[in-house]
Sequence to fold (146 residues):
Amino acid sequence: MAMNTKKIIVGGLAAGVVLNIIDWLAYGVVLADTMKSEMDAFKPGLSEMMAGGRSIMMAVVTDFVVGILLVWTYAAIRPRFGPGPSTAAAAAVLFWFLGSLFNAGYLHMGMMTMGTWWTLAIIWLVNLLLAAFIGAKLYTEEGTTA
Fold:
């Protein structure tokens, strides 16, 4: 059965909203001082550059792209693993694992401490799980209701 592109977009945009809200809370509110101090310790002025409009816009757009790709991945693996939260979790864990590998470079370059990296990794996992569950809930294949 073909994937339902409209539902991938709808679910992906909803997942992107979840990703953006939690990212804003994590990076902009809860960990704002930690992120600022660790970025500026790595390169003075980096936190101001990252708080600029262009950087924020790229982060927002990236979260929506990740949301759409997350739901697309869910739709792609759904025929093999079945519909539902466990398949959504599998897609989320795949994204978390790959994202954590990619973000490990920040740790190795000295841009953040191990504690901050793990904190962000855990937040990212929770964020992806919630986004995947919401996106999967909104996704149905054509001709089905579940």
About this structure: DSSP finds six helices and no strands in the chain.
